[in-house]
Design brief:
The chain is an alpha+beta fold and 582 residues long. The chain has helices at 16-19, 72-78, 135-147, 158-162, 204-207, 278-287, 301-308, 311-314, 340-349, 352-359, 397-406, 422-436, 449-456, 460-465, 482-490, 509-520, 524-541; strands at 52-56, 86-88, 99-101, 109-111, 116-120, 185-189, 192-196, 236-242, 246-251, 269-273, 292-293, 317-330, 365-367, 389-390, 393-394, 411-418, 440-447, 468-475, 544-555, 560-561, 579-580.
């Protein structure tokens, strides 16, 4: 559920001042910079230390474990306490997609035609207890997050797909107690880690930006319970965690700016309050009691209307393109949607304008017709299922023709949505109204964000037993390329028994092969052409109904410093160096 846009290869940068362009005072100096200021520069740029930065969220994340999470906002937030091999340079808009080394000294060195990647760790990096970080800790982090899927199932499974896995016999570090572990990850010395892949992966530097590469000390790993007391390598560490209520971070005394050009360690404390009503979060942002909405989903509908009619308040908003897609996933494994003609009928039948209105109007995103967002490299404009309107009413001629060809008659199905996202529930309700007109009677089942993917949406056993034919979804790329966007929602090998993102359970050999071939190609232009071809093939399969190209309306707290809305984090604010104005 992550990012987009192409990333240029850059050398290691060793100056914090260079990495936060504008934070030395050249950026906007205060919140009076105006609407959308954080999409163009750094607002309230400051190196002032002290105080408490307070975050809030309407639900609770699935996990704070860097190796067991798959939400963009947790990827973003986790960098405060976990350092992956690479990450994204704080910057406004597309500038935030610049990939830079983090735990590693430099970007990777490719060998064997892109099948081998070598990284050197920065010297002197320590865990919060003062223990030196080694390459073995990074190896272990990847092993636990990708090869113990029965325990840690919530993150992507790229490494599991691409790393040679001891001839299929490696069961992860919780079951395999051998010292050797995964043979395809070598650690020739304490600072060097080498990844051996089954086939070339041209965008591997992007892949290792995932928090799954943040080091984990094996002796302190508690499996699924590691989320409660993650051992920090970042600028902050866990002080306390009350599950479902509050997480408090404090400064990590063993973090050093000497080996970390990205982080500034500004506030004394960071507090995240959980399960706070969105309307309360919106009010607290305006009063300064809360500085950041953790989920970065934007204000609710009532607050949006107030902000857009008040010029003073509107000047503190950022309407950022999230490089995401809002869509309805169609389950290709549940009848009658295992028939492509039935799926095509759904493509034509869902009134996208009505859904757009339910989501908050055009300010929350333009109508979509492709899987790839418009601002992702490889996007090409096309519409295989154009919608026609008679006045305000959607013309259902094509929808009814395909539904008749499908031969399902009147059917009953289930649509899933997240109950702490009212806009998503409203959108699902609109979808239900549309489909009823062609004979599809859908009933909504809603679940919290924290359990949506682990227990319900995309979980094959649950979806089959509950007749789940449709699921509401919002998706952003794992890393800013077409592959990082498409693979986990379209490739058959991405399907898993829990924490699955290929909600449609699409397993099309042609699409799978196109993805596998594209990522092995070192020619970026050729890869981007392939991503456009994959997009069209996916739409031909009608497994995804694109609804809107997501945009978010964020309220920028006047009391927060270093506020920058980054494409790397789906339009959210970059959380790495937010401070508080005194």
């Amino acid at each position: 559920m992550r990012r987009s846009l192409p990333v240029a290869t850059v050398a290691a940068i060793t100056s914090a001042g260079l990495l936060l362009a504008g934070c030395s005072g050249k950026g906007s100096s205060d919140s009076s910079a105006g609407a959308n200021a954080a999409t163009k520069g750094v607002v309230n740029a400051s190196d002032e230390k002290g105080g408490t930065v307070t975050y809030a969220m309407s639900d609770a994340p699935e996990s704070f474990d860097p190796g067991n999470t798959y939400y963009a906002f947790v990827y973003n937030f986790s960098r405060l306490y976990a350092r992956p091999l690479t990450t994204f340079k704080p910057g406004p808009g597309a500038k935030g997609n610049e990939l830079v080394p983090d735990l590693a000294e430099s970007l990777g060195k490719a060998g064997d035609g892109g099948k081998t990647w070598t990284y050197k760790l920065r010297k002197g990096v320590k865990f919060e207890d003062g223990t030196p970080v080694t390459s073995q800790d990074v190896k272990y982090a990847v092993e636990r997050s990708n090869f113990a899927r029965d325990i840690l199932s919530l993150g992507p499974n790229y490494f599991q797909q691409f790393l040679v896995d001891n001839d299929g016999g490696y069961k992860g570090p919780y079951k395999d107690k051998s010292k050797e572990g995964l043979k395809s990850i070598e650690t020739p010395d304490a600072q060097t880690i080498v990844f051996h892949l089954k086939r070339p992966f041209a965008e591997f530097d992007d892949l290792v930006s995932a928090p799954q590469t943040a080091p984990v000390p094996q002796a302190k790993d508690k499996g699924a319970d590691y989320t409660k007391s993650v051992v920090s390598t970042g600028s902050y560490k866990f002080e306390s965690y009350q599950e479902g209520k509050r997480l408090t971070l404090v400064r990590n005394p063993n973090w050093s700016a000497a080996n970390d050009p990205l982080r500034k360690q500004l506030p004394d404390k960071i507090v995240l309050n959980l399960k706070v009503a969105q309307s309360t979060i919106d009010k607290d942002l305006q009063s300064g009691n809360t500085l950041v909405d953790m989920a970065g989903r934007g204000v609710d509908g009532q607050t949006q209307a107030q902000l857009l009619t008040d010029p003073r308040q509107k000047s503190n908003t950022d309407n950022a393109p999230g490089e995401r897609l809002v869509y309805t996933a169609i389950n290709t494994k549940v009848a009658p949607f295992d028939n492509v003609e039935c799926r095509k009928a759904v493509e034509y039948a869902i009134d996208k304008k009505a859904v757009q209105t339910a989501l908050g109007g055009p300010i929350r995103g333009e109508l979509a017709s492709t899987v790839l967002p418009t601002d992702l490299a490889g996007y090409q404009k096309f519409d295989l299922y154009p919608q026609k309107y008679n006045g305000d009413s959607l013309d259902l001629t094509e929808a009814r023709a395909h539904w008749k060809k499908c031969g399902a008659g009147n059917v009953t199905t289930t649509i899933l949505a997240r109950n702490d996202r009212q806009d998503e529930v409203d959108a699902a309700t609109s979808v239900i109204g549309s489909l009823k007109k062609i004979g599809i009677n859908a009933r909504i089942q809603s679940y919290p964000t924290s359990k949506y993917f682990s227990d319900y949406a995309g979980v094959p056993a649950f979806d089959k037993s509950n007749n789940v034919g449709l699921m509401m979804m919002q998706w952003g790329a794992d890393f800013p390329t077409g592959y990082g966007y498409l693979q986990q929602i379209l490739h058959g090998k991405a399907i898993s028994q829990s924490g699955n993102s290929n909600l449609s359970q699409l397993d099309d050999p042609e699409i799978n092969n196109l993805l596998d071939t594209a990522i092995a190609n070192t020619d970026q232009a050729a890869r981007e052409k392939a991503y456009a071809d994959i997009d069209r093939k996916a739409m031909e399969q009608a497994a995804i109904v694109p609804l809107t190209y997501f945009k978010v309306l964020l309220y920028r707290s006047p009391k927060a410093t270093n506020m920058v809305s980054s494409s790397a984090w789906s339009g959210e604010y970059d959380y790495l160096n937010i401070g508080v104005k005194k």
